Write the structure tokens for this entry.
Amino acid sequence: MNTTSFIPKDLKFLLKDTTVTWKTPSNIALVKYWGKTNPQLPKNTSISFTLSNCHTTTKIIFSKIKKVQQADFELFFEGKKKDDFKPKIATFFERIATYCPYVLEYKMEIHSENSFPHSSGIASSASGMSAIAMCLMSLEKELNPAISEEFFNQKASFLARLGSGSASRSIEGPLVIWGDHPDFDESSDLYGIKFPHYVHSIFDNYQDTILLVDKGEKQVSSTVGHNLMHDHPYAENRFKQANENLSKLSKILQTGNIKEFIKLVESEALTLHAMMLTSDPYFILMKPNTLNIINEIWSYREKTGSNVCFTLDAGANVHMLYPENEKEQIHSFIESKLAQYCQKGQFIHDFAGLGALSI
Ligand code: PMV
């Protein structure tokens, strides 16, 4: 599949006004994407669990207008007009205009809200961008009812990717691969695909509790972080390692080798942050409590034989991953030992889910 197949032909703009709403989740990468080229193409393949409770709900009211040169839209976040988010969305509409010419023929009123607390340090770009992408695809489907569900999801992932790379993995679930990889024939740098193999039942409803360590604005944005991979001394080895890790993880997911899962996932998280520590300029996104939590998880695992592990995204928060059958014990471990390291004692229980929902 190349990009031209996403350019619609013969759309008839007969539809006047329509309103669509989608709820799309965030995701947590197991093998991390860090490093990209234009336009938002990954330097290595990544895989993530799609989440459930952490999601964005977006409604777009489309009203037919005469064709304009630049997308005409208003943005409301949690009920309030949000002009400071507009430049990012305007750039997104510019990027996708070739693939979605209809964005220039409708006025769009975008209403968005997140299920997770505002500035919780949880990246909202994956759920936010995928929600807008799904809404656009709903309009496209109304303009061209012949498009298949497969094409709908693939193009939604393609569009979401142009907004935020990791958003390409927030359309489907529970496991999504993004980036071309020799082991997966259907994989592509352009969009995410569902992990195509059988997955061992130990990973069913896999749990993710997000410990909110630091809710402040990140000192270094992920855009800047990705760019620092360009002249990074370890970049090429890192990209190679990530692709090898995906091959290994694919086997682990199929066989249910949870001890190997723990090793690989934690190593991926620490390697991501090692790339940040060794960038020029270097930076640190972990906080003292990130490390306190990691040490607590390691000693809990040592003491109890639990299969809990941690991962990190580009921030200080810790994602605790564990099988559903350990839910009770892990919840009490969090309450008794880990909540003290979280800002205002806050954490969010989540689990792997199936992706976007039309509502
Ligand atoms: O989608 P972006 O550009 O915000 O990058 C996200 C990168 C990580 O969250 C650190 C890793 C990943 O694969 O999600």
Notes: The mean pLDDT is 95. Residues 235-255 form the longest helix (21 residues). Helices lie at 86-96, 125-143, 149-163, 222-227, 235-255, 258-277, 288-304, 327-338. The chain has two domains: 3-197, 205-351.
